[in-house]
């Protein structure tokens, strides 16, 4: 009887862990969207204005920018940012958090920007706070 209870408990724990595991999508452009927390609100389109918290890092883990450095969530038109963001954030729902892995071609390409060297893959952790109407 004890082994049956232990087996059932293990099955419940493993199914709970599987349900909580992040889901990952690889887009045709090579952008990888790893959903860390599924949102429950609407999904933005490329022409929407979004409000997000974010943190951007270089391949070595060095943070190069974050919304916290600028005093809180950032608001911008989704079609006025790097292609990785336009593509990746459209896959999110309001309330969701995701890790976007951006190949250099979908980030800043061969033009370095500030602390970001040319041809650098970038990673962003993004929380979609709202779609601004």
Q: What would you note in describing this structure?
A:
This protein has helices spanning 2-20, 83-89; strands at residues 23-26, 32-37, 49-57, 63-66, 74-77, 97-102, 122-132. The chain is globular, with a radius of gyration of 18 Å. The chain is 20% helix and 33% strand. The chain has one domain: Chitinase A, domain 3 (Roll), CATH 3.10.50. It has 2 helices and 7 strands; from the N terminus they run H-E-E-E-E-E-H-E-E. With 133 residues, it is α+β, with helices and mostly antiparallel strands.
Low-confidence stretches: 1-18
Q: Tell me about the biggest sheet?
A: 7 strands, antiparallel
Could you say which structural class the secondary elements and strand pairing correspond to?
A: alpha+beta
Strand segment tally:
7
Topology overview:
Layout: H1 2-20, E1 23-26, E2 32-37, E3 49-57, E4 63-66, E5 74-77, H2 83-89, E6 97-102, E7 122-132
Catalytic activity: [protein]-peptidylproline (omega=180) = [protein]-peptidylproline (omega=0)
Function: PPIases accelerate the folding of proteins.
EC number: 5.2.1.8
């Amino acid at each position: 009887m004890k082994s049956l209870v232990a087996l059932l408990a293990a099955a419940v724990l493993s199914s709970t862990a599987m349900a909580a595991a992040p889901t990952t999508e690889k887009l045709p452009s090579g952008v990888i969207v790893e959903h860390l927390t599924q949102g429950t609100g609407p999904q933005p389109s490329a022409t929407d204005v979004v409000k997000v918290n974010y943190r951007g890092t270089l391949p070595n883990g060095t943070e190069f920018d974050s919304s916290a450095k600028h005093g809180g969530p950032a608001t911008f038109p989704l079609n006025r940012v790097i292609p990785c963001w336009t593509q990746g954030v459209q896959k999110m729902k309001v309330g969701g958090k995701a890790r976007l892995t951006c190949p250099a071609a979908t980030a800043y390409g061969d033009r370095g920007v500030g602390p970001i060297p040319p041809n650098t893959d970038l990673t962003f952790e993004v929380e979609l706070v709202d779609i601004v109407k």
